[in-house]
Amino acid sequence: MMKMTYLVGVDEAGRGPLAGPVAVGVVVMPFTLKKALTKHAVKDSKKLSAKERDKWYRFLHRERRLGKINFSTALVSHKIIDERGIVFAVRVGIKKCLSRLNLKPDSCQILLDGSLKAPVKFKNQKTIIRGDETEPIIALASIAAKVRRDRYMIRLAKEYPHYNFEVHKGYGTALHYRQIKKHGLCTIHRLSFLTKGVK
Q1: What is the pLDDT, as a whole number, of residue 3?
Q2: What is the pLDDT of residues 115-165, one digit of tens each?
Q3: For all residues of the chain together, what is the average pLDDT?
């Protein structure tokens, strides 16, 4: 049996918004660097400001250039969410990221946040409730997913200026609902997430 040499963290961002894709982040590093990562005191993306998340995102890119860490992010569209559901969409994102990182199932231990699961061929996987708060590598994955999605929604705000996506990133805020009521739905709204009254 191949020795497990890599630790992998998996998380998603954008499960609940009314518009836009869901994002998945996967971070991988050698087990030998686990203690070093703990010293950095990385936090769950939800507990960080946008500026702090950007700092950690730059950290990920820097460590990747140094060959210490690798990571991948994937965006799965609102169309897939509407057609197959959010759980399916997140699984598609996880599969894409793991495939891009070319990970051998027997060589890694995968830690996933919440109720997430990796493909069954990855036997050494563990789902951890609030894992983004207790496992630094999951926290980094959550940051990677959040930053990737936020930046994408900010770009979409230029295409759909009536909805203020740069402010709420597609979440169901009072502002977002007001803009929907005023302008109707646009092509990136998740129809399955909206009530019949809003439609």
Answers
A1: 59
A2: 999 999 999 999 999 999 999 999 999 999 999 999 999 999 999 999 999
A3: 93
Helix (H, G, I), strand (E, B) or coil at 87: helix
Q: For residue 170, which of 182, 109, 54, 185 has the smallest C-alpha distance?
A: 185
Cα 56 from Cα 148, distance rounded (Å): 12
Task: Please report whether residue 198 resides in a domain.
Answer: no
| Structure-token pair, residue 165 | 């996506």
Closest CA to 108 of 124, 128, 95: 124
For 55, the domain range is 6-193
- Specify the number of domains making up the chain: 1
Q: What does the pLDDT read at residue 43? A: 76
Dihedral of CA atoms 136, 60, 30, 66 in degrees, nearest 10, equals -150
65 in any annotated domain: yes
Whichever domain contains 13, its CATH number is 3.30.420.10
Phi/psi for 170 (5° steps) reads: 95, -5
